[in-house]
Specification:
Length: about 250
């Protein structure tokens, strides 16, 4: 198995929810819960938090976690992962970008992504089948169009493909649609290359950084998960997540 580094980007600043990584969820901060879930993945060689804030850095150290301090001005989690990888400076073949706002992330999701990191895969991500009209037409849910090798042809907030001759509320019954689950694996050489790319026209149109990679000829391998993601984006999401947590624990 290729050595794989798990990195959890954790910014303090957030337009909708400043200080989000340090919120308390039933006795533990969100970043600690994400870190502990990631540590349960047997396919990750190491796990680090990558943060731009001394408070988060100190907190991760206080519970015994690995952490690295990065710059504040990164435009994306991908760029933060690359700086962290450079600072950690060890012999990893792949880097997995684990979302820092999913305290319930299932370790088997991480394993699923790691399993496609075979040395040939350049980039990889997860997706989940769409089972309703509401989700399919929600512009907040990113859909993935695939080729026969389960590689992404396109990511879009719109519904692709169009189903001719069928009412829109039945499209999901006539084609297997997938929506994106935002976790990425990067081969180490590819991570360095994509952080040097300039923003692309499709990326700017859809506000999706992965389109920059596709426009520049990189392949994104996709794996199907059955586990839904539960992000905390606003303070109002906390109660919903706690309800889910009570079900699980």
């Amino acid at each position: 198995m290729n050595p794989i580094l798990g990195i959890i980007p954790a910014r303090y600043a957030s337009t909708r929810f400043p200080g989000k990584p340090l919120i308390n969820i039933l006795g533990k901060t969100m970043i600690q819960r994400v870190y502990e879930q990631a540590m349960k993945s047997p396919l990750l060689t190491d796990v680090y938090v990558a943060t731009d804030d001394q408070r988060i850095y100190d907190h991760v150290q206080s519970f015994g976690g690995n952490v690295v301090l990065t710059r504040e001005d990164h435009p994306s989690g991908t760029d933060r992962c690359f700086e962290a990888f450079q600072k950690i400076d060890d012999d990893y073949d792949y880097i997995v970008n684990i979302q820092g706002d999913e305290p319930f992330i299932d370790p088997t999701q991480i394993d699923l992504l790691c399993e496609v990191c075979d040395g040939l895969t350049e980039l990889a991500t997860l997706m989940i089948p769409v089972d309703s009209h509401e989700v399919l037409f929600d512009p907040g849910e990113v859909k993935i169009t695939l080729n026969t090798e389960m590689e992404a042809l396109y990511f879009s907030r719109m519904v692709i493909p169009f189903i001719k001759g069928k009412p829109e509320n039945e499209w999901h019954l006539h084609h297997t649609y997938y929506r994106h689950v935002g976790m990425y694996a990067y081969r180490r050489d590819v991570l360095e290359e994509i952080t040097k790319l300039k923003p692309s026209s499709l990326e700017s149109a859809e506000s999706l950084e992965q389109l920059r990679w596709l426009e520049n000829g990189f392949n994104v391998q996709c794996a199907v998960t059955t586990f839904d993601s539960h992000c905390i984006d606003t303070p109002e999401d906390i109660e919903k997540v706690i309800r889910l947590m009570n079900i699980k624990e």
